[in-house]
Structure formats: structure tokens, C-alpha cells
Amino acid sequence: MNTEESVAAHYGRNDVQEQLLGIIRGAGGNPENFLPAELHGADQLHVGGAAATTRVATRAGINAGSHVVDLGSGLGGVCRHLAHDFGATVHGVDLTPRFVDAARSLTERTGLSGQVAFSQGSILSLPFADDSFDAALLVHVGMNIQDKDTVFAEAARVLRPGCVLAVYDIMIVGGEPEEYPLPWAVTPDTSFVQPPLAYSDALAQAGFTVDHEAKPLAEGIDFLEKSLARGGPAGVGEVALENLLSAFRAGFLAPVEIYSHLP
After folding, report:
1. In 3-state terms, what secondary structure has residue 25?
2. Domains of the chain, each with CATH number or no CATH
3. What share of the chain is helix, strand, coil (3-state, %, to 5)?
4. What is the pLDDT of residues 40-49, one digit of tens each?
5. Which of 96, 130, 192, 205 has the most beta carbons within 10 angstroms of its beta carbon?
6. DSSP string for residues in 135-204
7. Cα–Cα distance for residue pair 126/132, rounded to 1 Å
8. Residues in a beta bridge with 139
9. Which residues pair with 25 in a beta bridge?
10. What mean pLDDT value characterizes the chain?
């Protein structure tokens, strides 16, 4: 099993869609017709959830005229958020077939299929023509990707000149993580966390200009503490969240945002 197959297997092992629909039923909603916000961010498997998506999208300048590609779209929560809250048109690409199937189903149930589409595949080889999008997001995906140079080169290829790539990943800020599992990997074999400078260098090599970097560590710690108190998001093990929280508190890892554009 190669790295991409191992990553897809890691994320595809649980029936997360049924867990998400259970959230809707538990709140007295209709699982066949609901608003994205009714999932309370449980479909957005990144530190900060929906609030972080709003922050990143705002800083990236995404609006109702934006045509966005979400690189590693998971359950489609970020895509639906951008469509519903910002009015954007979004295409998500994800490696895991079960996630893509769930993303399409959930999007149909929220009535957003006219604005949001999904493709199953690798973001190392995007199924789009050159200059197809005016914004790209990479949200908590780079930790599973060793070849970030190719990802950023592909993003540069499908983005139009002057457009933005926003990266929001867990990065090394003080040392390698010591305890596994983590939310993105059971062992170090499929974990490729790197420092912000490695990202900036790879972005520059792909032709991007880095504009801004942020490290919302305090917000990340608060989010994980509250998530653990509620039992954690759907499909993410409690031990993995506890290990990530410990790495945040120890100063080994942190959530980092990097905003760049094509000249």
C-alpha cells in the first residue's frame, strides 16, 4: 500500500456521514433537508472548525464572485461553508472515495449542489485546465503530503494570475510530535508535518509570493479543549485529539495560516 492509499484508508475507515446525520436528527432537524450550520462545524475536520473557515476565507478575500478549489476537501464542510456563507462557487478534490461520496450526499441535502461539486482524486494531479480558479484553499491537508512542491505547482497551474492560495495546516514550530496517533496519522509513516519556512520555500518555488502568516495557537488550544469536553468531532478519535493538544501545549506543533498570491 503506497502513501496515498494509506492516507485514504485512514480517513475512510468510519461511516462519518451517518454520524453527521445523527447530529441533525438529535437536534430535531430533517436529515434530508438542512442548513450547513446545523452540523455545527462537525463536517469541518480542522482546528477551529467553522469559525476558522470564516477567518481564512475572509483573509483570502473570498466572496460571491469567487471560483474556489478546495484541495483535500474531506467531507465538504469547507466547500459548503464557502458557498452558503460567502456565495462562492466551489470545487472540492479529495483522495478518499468515502469522503467524496459523503460530501456529495450532504451537499445535496443542503441544497447547494448548484454551487458545489466534488471530484475524487489526488491533488498532486488536479483534474482541471490551467487558469480555472481565482482562489485555492489547503486546509489541514499538507500534514499527509510529503511532496508539497507538486501540490503548490498544481495550485499555481490551475489558479489565474493575481489569485490567492490560502494554506491552513498544523506545522512544526518547536519540535517533532512525540505521541501518535494524531488526527491525520496513526504512525509517523504517513505524517509529513513541516515548519512554516518549508511551506514558504515551496510556495516561492511554485511561483507564489507569500503575503501574510498567522499562528492562532491560543485559539487552537481552546478549540481542542472544548472539542474534547464534547467528545470530539465526528470520526476523530479522542486519543488523537489529546495528543495534538499536548503537542500544542508543549510548543511542538501549532496551527499556522499562510496567505500567498500568484504575481
Report:
1. helix
2. 3-261 (3.40.50.150)
3. 40, 20, 35
4. 888 998 999 9
5. 96
6. EEEEES-GGG-S-HHHHHHHHHHHEEEEEEEEEEEEEESSS---S--BTTBSSGGG-----HHHHHHHHH
7. 11
8. 168
9. none
10. 92
